[in-house]
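agent> Task received from the user: take the single chain below, predict its 3D structure, and emit structure tokens. No templates, no multimer pairing.
agent> Plan: (1) validate residues, (2) run structure prediction, (3) serialize to tokens, (4) report one or two observations.
agent> Step 1 OK, no nonstandard residues flagged.
tool_call: predict_structure(input=
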Amino acid sequence: MLGRTDSRGRLLFLLVAFALLAGVLGVRLAYWQVGEGPQLRRLAEAQIARANPPAPAERVRGDITDRNGTLLATTAYRDFLAAYPDTIAADRRGAVAERLAGILGLGRLRTAQLVDSFERGVPYVVIARRLTEEQSQAVRRDLAAGELAGLALEPRAVRFYPNAGGAPNTSLASQLIGFVSEDGQGRYGVEQHSDQRLSSQHGPTAALDGGLPMTDAGLALTIDASLQLRLEKDLYATWVADRASRVSAVVMDARTGAILAWGSVPGYDANDYAAAATDPSIFIDPLAGELYEPGSVLKTVTAAAALEAGKVGLSTPVLDAKSLQVGSNVVYNADRKQMGEIPFEDVIAFSRNVAVGKVAMMLGRTTDQAAGVLYSMWQRLGLGHRTGVDVAGEVAGLASDPQARSWQPIDLINRSFGQGVAVTPLQLAVAYAAMVNGGNLITPHVELRAAPADPAEVLDERLSARLRQLLVHAVNSGPRYQRQAQIPGYLVGGKTGTAQIWDARRGAWKEDVFNHTFCGFVGGDEPELVIVVRIHDAAPLIEESWGMSLEVTSSELFRRIAQNAIEVLDIPPAGGSVEP
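)
tool_result: status=success, residues=580
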């Protein structure tokens, strides 16, 4: 058995050595904490809160501009403010917290929370993630004066949207552009769709004023900022007047698909998107990301199918009755009246459900054949499909294929006037453009440098000319259209739609609340712009001689937007020119 190697003397020696070492370390620590503590604290504070801290070494997200170079989104720098309360003398902590609360304009509860965290001497507190320039200046001034201590100011790159929108507390084109989240990711709209490009790390760079490297990944959009602002103001005024849940509109070049204005009210302030996050639905763009039954604006599509098939001409008489019995179902005109035998162009102009239903049944010898003809026209005009627009969040639509599931006669009739099919306003804009631009299905786009996709010829040019004539007749002859939609000196055509809204919770149609749509075009001698407006979930409350109406109708809103577009874009009148 091995003997023990320890001894009492050796243990005593080691104990004394450790005691002496601990004493020396304790004295040294006391020297730094007590003797040099104030000086070290001042040095630490000077490092934490520098008067002019160097900007972080990071690349800057590319700018977004409108078609004329107006800045819509850029990178700005805002100070991130944090505090280290345990580095502040205990008797000063409350005063520093109160001072900060005053600079930041904090409420009573937030001030009390801040004072409590300071007085407890917690190691680290985030005060604000994005100070305004005025707040940053006030903090730096008070630091220099010795009224604040223990703070960290750090400049951080943030996405900045410099233009106010047409509605209160919004930034311009918020629904179209989207925003950039705290993690630097583009969310919704253009910011999400073009996120990789805007945040690209490739290619030559240019330095900003502060010496920060900037990407060359800027993006120019097709929209016109001036027209966009006017559009948003018109949408806001209509939203207020009609007490609608939402109002939205898109203005598109009828020949190229370039989006010239695109908006929805209510929108949000992309600079403060977190404030809108309490209702995430506000971020969903209703122009491309929300489906609805559009109603009678689809009567024009039924007309396209019937004219192409030779079932009717514009002057062909059609008998409009008060109602139409379809099995156990009865279809009525909206006014519960009949107009008798009228030309087919008046069937569309006066939006007769019964007469359109009869024409739809003429599309084939059987319901299946007629459904196939109408569905084929939907498909060719892009209804029920994504348009391919370069914006995040586009949805496809709901357009039932009769080959996959047979339509009943009532399905055919309802769908002939826009019920039982769900689309987006952008799909309607594309369809109407094809119907009036010579028959070409275009791809809508918001990127100015994007090479437009080659259009597909989906309608004969002669059919397109007849559809233009039909839509002009609707504006010139339809009820109240002359006053609400016509623009003297310009070619204007279009169609309204007033659609019932299904309440899934109640299992019934909503009472006296409708989706109101106008799809139309405007130009000088030819259609130049297609404009689609939608007034969401609004109840007609104004009593007119002919019935109940909205304060601002969809056709009136169309005219206001069209007039602004004519002015901003310098569109010449028919047979005329606009002076440069």
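agent> Step 4: summary for the user.
Residues 226-569 form a domain with the Beta-lactamase fold (CATH 3.40.710.10).
agent> Done.
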